[in-house]
Amino acid sequence: MTFMRQRVAGVLLVLGLILSWVCLTGVVVRQSLLLTAKAPVYATTALKNPVVRSAVSEVIISSVQSKYPVLAEISTAQLRAAVEQALSEPAVAEELGNVALQLQLHFIGQSNGPIVIGGPGLSLAVAQIIAPGNQPLQQAIEKVPFSFTLSSSSIPSIGRYYRWIGTLINSTFVGGLALLAASLLVSAKRNKTLRKIGIGFIGMSALEVGLFWLLPHYMLSHLSNGSGVIISAMLAASASSIAAIYLGVFVAGIALTVVSLIF
After folding, report:
1. How far apart (Å, rounded) are the C-alpha atoms in residues 92 and 49?
2. Which one of 32, 123, 199, 246 has the fewest CB atoms closer than 10 angstroms to its CB?
């Protein structure tokens, strides 16, 4: 009888932890990727990384350098340095914050057009950096649209699933909680079951950190594609802003484990 109770409790425990992990992942996705109001903040954070500025400048320069004769007078190294410096200026960061918002809207299926990275603010800043005392050259550079267009096909979208994420979070939260509570009630060794729940929470937290924080940072340092670096930087910046969620689940797991050992 005790053996069967433990087997049933084990099944309920596994199902409860799976639903809890799905719930946690839904919360992380919603908080980090779907809150469009935070997109400009993520962009500003991402642009503080020199790897990101270098990637953005690379794709922009590759897009415009051969198309405008005025840029032939400027070395590639000088042009790249000017664009990278301009990307660190507040006005340009604000301009790219709007780009981040467009990326978020595309991701949740509310926009499907191409996205232009850069704009007049970047062109003005680059012109002022390259030719501060040369008005004719400065005006000529200002007319160059320092920008790069991301096609909609290169940006992932979860638009068809977006409307269901709230329902998913609520249902998996209730289901997971009910199954974990049932596993405790059925189990003949409740302290051992409670310990497994605690360890499961610790593991879930570690997995989410790996997927939404470590992986984007790893990709950021290994990708050579400019648009890939930009998207990875956004993911890394957004994940860092919800560290409290990971920490909360981790602390809960530690607390449950300690309680199981005491009682």
Report:
1. 15
2. 199
